[in-house]
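Milestone M4 deliverable, item 7.
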Amino acid sequence: MQELLQKIGVDTELLNKEQLHTRETTLSILGISPKTLWNYQKSNLIEGTTFKGRRYYSKDAIIDCIKMHFNITTSSISSPISSDSPYPISLRISSKSISSSN
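Output delivered:
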């Protein structure tokens, strides 16, 4: 999973630094704009919590967001596409993900 996250541009070092991240840190980890993060929340791709007027996201919520956005299942993470494939992880992108990114 670590390789996949790095391949798609996720700051894994920052992600693994803490279990709970501020809104600003989450933006850096995912490499997205505040508007995109707001859209992810609106679409229920990521769940955050507010405490004392600040928004926080757990490490698990960020990883779940990535899995949902790219339609990655547990089985696709643990099994290769095919035995002769150079890629260890099957990554299926749903048509919903493609249409929402345009």
